[in-house]
Amino acid sequence: MSTIALFGAGGKMGYRLAANLRNSPSTVRHVEVGEAGRARLKESFGIDTVAPAEALDGADVVVLAVPDTHIGKVAAGIEKGLKPGTMVIVLDAAAPAAGHLPDRPDLTYFITHPCHPPLFNDETDMAAKKDYFGGIKAKQHIVSALMQGPEEDFAKGEAIARTIWAPVMRSHRVTVEQLAMLEPALAETMCASLLEVMREGVDEVVRRGVDRQAAMDFLLGHINVLASVIFEEREGAFSDACNKAIEFGKPALMRDDWKRIFEPEEIAASIRRIT
After folding, report:
1. pTM of this prediction?
2. Ranges for the Pyrroline-5-carboxylate reductase catalytic N-terminal domain (predicted)?
3. Which of 146, 115, 117 is nearest to 131 (CA)?
């Protein structure tokens, strides 16, 4: 059984983890610097927070549920309290890939991130259907990477990951470099940008006279059916008219070299901007 020190326990992400770790057999010590976060933990779960030194005393797992921009500072601040063999779990690849973790070969670095509940799912409970982020009611997949440490530590980290992101379906093992391709490149640089363009498209047709609710209903419905075909969720084919629109639309919307966002140097530049 592990002793886990959860840093940032009252924050947006840490609060979710604190909720799920109540179902863990591990001993969990909660660290939160914000008064509002500490009050939230106490009011919601009856959890009392502790000072960093107390949390680290004897802990064999440290979870850093803090923003990417704070990872380096927090990690440097607690480094002296990390005994050899401690597993440090980070929830995003950006800071580790940017070299913001201490140069400590005697530590295990494990990175895990949720895929979030899939667009196509079998949820029937309304609370689960409305759990868009995951980690509360909706089932989701996860990805994890063992950045450094003994191979047997992957299973230990994955078990904790399954707890903090529960309920979990598939658990994928990737490398740190692959995780960085997934986020920020695939999920944020590509997907979030394209979705923002779609939202701007709604604004544009509304500006041109279409009722906003009609535009939203039309677009979101079409996203559902078009995605089901494009990602082979169901058998189907687009009409000739749709194929012609795609043939014209891609070069009108996308640069020819847009896939450069997946090149290592572009991912590195993106991570520098993030961190």
Report:
1. 0.94
2. 4-89
3. 117
Phi, psi of 146 (to 5 degrees): -95, 105
Burial class (CB in 10 A: 0-12, 13-18, 19+), 257: exposed
211 and 157, same domain (yes or no) = no
137-167 pLDDT, tens digit each: 999 999 999 999 999 999 999 999 999 999 9
The sign of the CA dihedral 145, 147, 153, 156 is negative
Q: Do 86 and 161 reside in the same domain of the chain?
A: yes
> Residue 1: pLDDT above 80?
no
Nearest to 86 by CA among 106, 69, 101: 106
Residue numbers of the domain that contains 185: 181-274
Question: In this structure, what CATH number is given to the domain that contains residue 28?
Answer: 3.40.50.720
Q: Tell me if 6 sits within 8 A of 28, measured CB to CB.
A: yes
Domain count, the chain: 2
